[in-house]
């Protein structure tokens, strides 16, 4: 009885228009299902069994006939010369065993992801696949440093209140009715995606705002769900992730994919190159997501188009007014970020890498007296950094063994697919596998680590330019919005209880399929114009 009374008191004290009620730390944690708990229990057993079987008991036929002339990476050639055929085959067997075991641990979440990464690093060193220097050096990978500096810069936006001020101002200025509110969030997400490379950070900034607006329009979650709530929450989840696809710095997974591709081609993929290819695609997908939500999946009834709490928007105005006038620190933050964006966008002209630009911006933000934030105000999720380091170490292992290329060649040889296979067959297959793999894998970084090297291997085998297949595959990384475990923003927003699994699957899967069709169309038109895909290989137009 006491607990029941306490719950009723909490419910009575809950103010649906108080933005502070919707902070991440106050959201209830979703309990794992029985199936998820079962996966956690069998995960370590499956991982250990797969490692032992693949590493010590099963000798795969396709590893027995490795031709050193067919090796793609320079690291693999050096390893072959150093170890000889038997040693190189053994390294590939151990690499495959470690990789499969790590995938099992990551998918089942049997142990924390960062701990799996630490096990990977130690395993690759102890097995002899990688030397200590090379394995441990991945924590200093340029992409790792860009992630760290990006979190410093994102913390600057949060600490100064710039991001919150912009979002509130835009909603109050342009969100005059239900329809324009949704368009406002589309634009807000597109703008923030250019500056904030962490999708979780964007979700943390925007969630309290769209939750209050949902409450204003009668959506409280649970038994008080309505289409306004479903639409505003799922549209924001979609925009948060797809917004990241428009920019090379949109997420660490984008940067990792670009690093893998540049390593294969010996050149550079610039911020401006990525943005030119994907910014129009990003906006197109956002508009399609808006239309489908408003017209097909969650159409608003006349009653849902009207606020159910009188004066609700005034609460947002009060929150905006609490920020006061624009402060010098906010002006500094805007100037620093605009300068960073200019240098990122013109990297093909000056040649300064995005990591170096972010370094300078973070230094400016942290400088005593001149800067904006102190180190104690910086929020860097080190567990994510360690997780990424493990993924990058796997990538180093792939380069040293050339396992993706060897596996790709064996797969196509087994199917009897010749080197005369049409480009469009490979393009459709690789982009389709990449986009729909998000239904299974929980990590964008993991998908980049698996499928970008495969695309590189396929392109090399069939004699096509690496970027013609690997870059379109990389462009599909951010489609992680269908199921709650697909990404951290998806898991976070699912806790709002504004929608069920059927809602998110119907809406998300439809968008995922449309995105695949759009990348196919772009391969024949826009990407061909940009020189990404070759001329005259599709034959559609």
| Largest sheet geometry | none
Distance between the termini: 71 Å
Helix fraction, binned, reads: 55-70%
- CA radius of gyration: 24 Å
Instruction: Specify the structural class.
Output: mainly alpha
Mean pLDDT: 80
Provide a compact summary of the structure.
Helix content is 69%, strand content 0%. It is mainly alpha-helical and 541 residues long.
Written description of the protein model:
The chain is mostly helical and 541 residues long. It is built from 24 helices and no strands. The termini are far apart.
Task: List strands and helices in order, with pairings.
Layout: H1 2-13, H2 34-57, H3 74-108, H4 113-126, H5 132-136, H6 142-160, H7 162-174, H8 178-195, H9 199-216, H10 227-245, H11 252-265, H12 271-297, H13 312-322, H14 328-345, H15 347-350, H16 354-366, H17 382-401, H18 403-415, H19 423-436, H20 444-462, H21 466-474, H22 488-494, H23 501-524, H24 526-530
């Amino acid at each position: 009885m006491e607990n029941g009374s306490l719950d009723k008191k909490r419910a009575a004290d809950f103010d649906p228009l108080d933005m502070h009620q919707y902070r991440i730390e106050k959201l209830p944690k979703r309990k794992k299902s029985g199936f998820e708990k079962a996966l956690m229990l069998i995960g370590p057993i499956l991982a250990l069994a797969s490692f032992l079987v693949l590493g010590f008991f099963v000798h795969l036929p396709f590893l027995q006939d490795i031709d050193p002339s067919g090796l793609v990476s320079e690291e693999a050639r050096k390893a072959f010369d150093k170890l000889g055929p038997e040693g190189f085959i053994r390294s590939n067997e151990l690499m495959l065993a470690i990789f499969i075991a790590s995938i099992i641990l990551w998918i089942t979440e049997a142990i924390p992801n960062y701990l799996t990464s630490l096990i990977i690093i130690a395993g690759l060193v102890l097995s002899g696949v990688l030397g200590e220097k090379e394995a441990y050096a991945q924590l200093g990978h340029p992409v790792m440093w860009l992630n760290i500096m990006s979190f410093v810069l994102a913390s600057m936006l949060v600490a100064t209140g710039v991001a919150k001020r912009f979002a509130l101002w835009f909603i109050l200025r342009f969100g005059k009715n239900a329809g324009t509110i949704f368009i406002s969030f589309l634009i807000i997400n597109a703008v923030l995606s250019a500056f904030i490379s962490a999708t979780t950070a964007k979700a943390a900034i925007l969630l309290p705002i769209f939750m209050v607006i949902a409450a204003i329009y009668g959506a409280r979650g649970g038994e008080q769900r309505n289409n306004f709530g479903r639409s505003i929450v799922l549209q924001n989840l979609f925009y948060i992730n797809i917004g990241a696809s428009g920019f090379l710095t949109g997420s660490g997974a984008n940067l990792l994919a670009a690093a893998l591709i540049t390593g294969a081609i010996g050149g550079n993929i610039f911020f401006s190159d990525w943005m030119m290819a994907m910014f129009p695609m990003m906006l197109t997908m956002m508009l399609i997501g808006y239309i489908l939500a408003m017209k097909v999946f969650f159409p608003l009834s006349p009653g849902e188009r009207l606020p159910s709490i009188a004066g609700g928007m005034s609460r947002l105005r009060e929150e905006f007014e609490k920020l006061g006038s624009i402060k010098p620190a906010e002006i500094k933050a805007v100037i620093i970020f605009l300068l960073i964006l200019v240098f990122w966008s013109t990297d093909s002209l000056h040649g300064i890498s995005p990591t170096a630009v972010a370094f300078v911006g973070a230094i400016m933000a942290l400088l005593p007296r001149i800067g904006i934030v102190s180190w104690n105000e910086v929020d860097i999720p080190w567990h994510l950094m360690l997780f990424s380091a493990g993924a990058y170490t796997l990538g180093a292992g792939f380069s040293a063994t050339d396992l993706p290329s060897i596996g790709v060649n064996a797969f196509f040889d087994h199917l009897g697919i010749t080197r005369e296979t049409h480009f469009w067959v490979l393009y459709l297959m690789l982009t389709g596998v990449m986009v729909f793999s998000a239904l299974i894998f929980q990590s964008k970084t993991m998908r980049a680590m698996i499928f970008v090297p495969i695309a590189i291997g396929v392109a090399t085998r069939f004699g096509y330019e690496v970027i013609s297949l690997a870059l379109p595959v990389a462009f599909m990384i951010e489609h992680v919005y269908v199921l709650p475990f697909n990404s951290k923003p998806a898991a976070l927003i699912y806790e709002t209880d504004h929608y069920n699994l059927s809602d998110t699957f119907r809406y998300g899967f439809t968008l995922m399929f449309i995105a695949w069709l759009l990348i196919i169309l772009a391969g024949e038109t826009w990407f061909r114009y940009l020189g990404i895909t070759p001329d005259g290989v599709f034959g559609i137009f």
